Amino acid sequence: MELMRKTVTYGMGGKRLITQLTFDDDINVSDRNADIRNIIMQAGHVRLEEMRVLGNKVRLAGHLEFSVLYSSEDHGMLSCIKGDFGFEEMINYDGGQDGDQVTVLWDMEDLRAQVINSRKMNVKAVVTFSMYPSRLTDIQAAVGVQDPAGPEILTRTEQFAGLKLCGKDTLRVKEMFPLPGGKPDVDRIIFQDIQLRNVKTRPENGRVAVNGELFLFMLYRSADEHMPLQWLERQFNISGEVEAAHATDLMLSASCVGLAHTEVSATEDEDGEMRQITVEAVLQCDLMLYEEQRMELLEDVYVPEMEFDITRPEIPMTILEGSNDSRMKMNVTMQLHAQKPLMQVVYTGAAVKVEDYHPGDGGLVLEGVISLDLLYQQADQENPFDARHQDYPFSYTVQMPTEELENGLQLQITSSVEQVNAVLSGADEAEIRLMAGFRIISCREQRMRMITGIEMRPVSPEKIENMPGITGYMVKPQDTLWSVARKFYVPLSSIREVNSLTTDELKPGQRLLIVK
């Protein structure tokens, strides 16, 4: 008996891997920087350089890049120290195989700089990495048989959204724009922050389109030493595509896109003035594409008076249950505790972190923290700039089914700040409006049996002789017409004909006459 086979590509996702890294080091002030008076604010970004599966280990290597903005004794002038911590970590990954893909997400749990003396500071940081492994595998599954003898066959239909493509790629983005007319030339960029917002991925034929927005904030000094510190904000749309050979526009994307590296520089314009700003960014794209699949698989086969040894492995498959994009609006009032009258808000930085989730009334309850940094200007010649950091807890309900959370449903939750705006609303306070976005991918493991091989041999003569020619049988609750025919080694058509059956449906307690 020859099996008709079909190549079935399926994805498997492992359990989430979590590791936390701690950094702590003293940083000296370079000769070109002024002495430290006090720390204003700090910012950090993880740049992954390698993520590789080595058997039952995951090797994670890269750098934590940080910037510390501080005021100096020179009339509170702002300066910035930039540095990085290198890291290389091996994480246990039970059941891992070389070539597995891993999506890596990171959260900055803490980043703090403290003054040691006017020429030295201490920087501490804690970063949590969440890793989501996945693997694509092929299996030759039986879908039918080729046999002129016409064996009895039973098939079944499977329909699900299975992982069809996973991989990694990078997308490079470059934007150039001139300084606004009222701004002086750039002499030195002091501090910059680049954020990726409102990112969408869309599978197309042979590629994945990426669209979103880049937000830039930049502090700089002009060549005129009498000019005050300058700053600007700019937001622009980005679009691009990465190759994905087997992608189609019918697939569903659960891809993650993050900033891998950024760089801001000032160059000369056509008049030879330093007024051309260039923003370059490298986007890390972790591609995860699912496809709705409908398969007709061979469930069972038999020939009367023959016995079979069927190879039917149980295949663990990752099935996409759904995806949910949700947005939360949040308004808070921040007390600034300024020493002098406030003049204006210079910069607002925000980060959102989900710390826990659980089923609740109406959906999935997300609990976490919104971290806000506000840089502001005050009427103080000796200390014109200051900043305030504050964490705000939140609880937000995403409308989605949660019944399967108790039955092994796995969630991948990514969060980002999509909009943030701050205005002074009182003598010593600011009103901050924020919109956070949450992307929730829900998957589960489905264990599916597929026939990959069959061996057939005749029933022993002794067994045939011991079976009565005519048998009365009472149908049990778990019986089907197929299972009864197979049990007594008779054709399905024989049972239908002898018992005048008009349907293959059997009822418990029904009596059947079996004629060999």
Task: Please render the helix and strand layout as text.
Elements lengths: L1 E12 L3 E12 L9 E17 L2 E15 L6 E15 L8 E17 L2 E27 L5 E27 L9 E17 L2 E15 L8 E14 L8 E2 L2 E13 L5 E29 L3 E6 L2 E22 L6 E19 L2 E16 L6 E14 L11 E17 L2 E21 L3 E6 L2 H5 L4 E5 L6 H8 L3 H7 L12 E5 L1
Antiparallel strand pairs: 1-7, 2-7, 3-4, 4-5, 6-7, 8-14, 9-10, 10-11, 12-14, 13-14, 15-22, 16-21, 17-18, 18-19, 20-21, 23-24
Q: In percent, how helical is the residue content?
A: under 10%
Compute the number of strand runs: 24
Using only C-alpha atoms, the radius of gyration works out to 32 Å
Counting DSSP H or I runs of 4 or more residues, the number of helices is: 3
Mean pLDDT: 92
Cα distance, first to last residue?
Answer: 23 Å
Based on Cα principal axes, name the global outline: elongated
Structural class by SSE content = mainly beta
Largest sheet: 4 strands, antiparallel
What is the N-to-C succession of helices and strands? EEEEEEEEEEEEEEEEEEEEEEHEHHE
- Residue windows where pLDDT falls under 50 for at least 5 positions: none
Query: Beta-strand percentage?
Result: over 45%
* Oligomerization status of the protein chains: single chain
Please describe what this structure looks like.
With 516 residues, the protein is mainly beta. Helices cover 4% and strands 70% of the residues. The chain has three helices and 24 strands. The strands form eight sheets. Strands 1, 2, 6 and 7 form a four-stranded antiparallel β-sheet that branches. Strands 8, 12, 13 and 14 form a four-stranded antiparallel β-sheet that branches. The model has no long low-confidence stretch (mean pLDDT 92).
